[in-house]
Amino acid sequence: MTTFIPQTASNGGVKPVSKKSAFSLLFLAMVCIACAGISHSQATTDGSAAIVSPNNAHANIEPRKASIAAESDDASISVDAASLLPDLPPVPRENATLVGGTIERLDHVRDRVTVRLFGGGRQTVLFDPRTQVFRGGKAASLTDLHEGERVYLDTILDGSTVFARTMRLDATRATGESQGIVMKYRADRGELTYRDSLSPDPVRVRITSATKVQQGDRPTNVSALVAGSLISIGFTSDGAGRNSANEITILALPGTRYTFAGNVVHIDLRSGLLVLNSSTDHKTYEVYLSPSAAPDDNLQPGANVTVVTNYDGSHYVVREITINLR
User: Residues 244, 269: one domain?
Assistant: First the structure.
């Protein structure tokens, strides 16, 4: 049986079409659709869209680039990680004690150096980026430190630790300042031995004819350096562990009465320690209350006081204290 598909003839009649021809037309249509799909896929797989001018079918096709989302302002900000670290506090402005010896151990992890001191003993000192290093008078860095080298350190007491403010390598001469209590003076040897709060061992310095000794602001004789005297000393080291005193100031003599006036900075009634900032020279002094002294409720940090003390060879012991009420 033959199937006919009606088709409009040119004369307006219906022309029969065979089944075979119908299948051929159907196959051709499917091929065209497939080709159109491939062309569309090729045109869009790269993320572009073709724009064709409606006025000219033969106009050039211009690809339109896919839009890129603007970056957020936060993501575009560049931050230096080092700027997030807090700045180190300034080095305390205190007199430094000169420590000389040989570097026995260097620990860059814990930032500390152990020095075998000239004359015996050893001391561990902390350092950090605030520490200044010099080699032969020229600026150096902490990486220039090596075990076995001779070094001089200007050390201060920072809280409860000994801190190196300055390190000098290969120094032929070094100067320093210290404060301590006289243990003994040997006039026959011209040698003064004193105990410094930062040094584990007694410190010995030579007294020469060029050494200036004064008590307060008045010159005095070297014989005034009796045991128990509190002194401030400036000295020079010759590079071989021999220290020579340039100037010695007697701050207090045993049995002498001293009066301080200023504001209380700290008070510890258990140990009897009272720290005050003098209104006269703006220095900080430690005085000790008698254990039998009755505490006053007005004796608090910030209080303005006048304190009469006796120096006993190691401490200023309070004899009388007056709270100046404002």
Answer: no
Residue numbers of the domain that contains 276: 257-323
pTM for the structure as a whole: 0.50
Q: How many domains does the chain have?
A: 3
Both structure tokens of 208: 């020469």
**CA 202 to CA 200: how far, in whole Å?**
7
Kindly calculate the radius of gyration of the chain based on its CA atoms and give it in whole angstroms. 45
Q: pLDDT of 100-125, one tens digit each?
A: 788 889 898 889 999 887 656 788 99
CB burial of residue 280 (10 Å; 0-12, 13-18, 19+): exposed
How does DSSP assign 26-37, residue by residue? HHHHHHHHHHHH
How many C-beta atoms surround the C-beta of residue 263 within 10 A? 15
User: DSSP label at 212?
Assistant: E
How confident is the model at residue 146, as a pLDDT?
A: 85
End-to-end Cα distance, the chain: 130
Integer Cα distance of 133 and 110 in angstroms: 18
Count, residues in the chain: 326
In the structure encoding, which two tokens stand for residue 326, read together? 């404002």
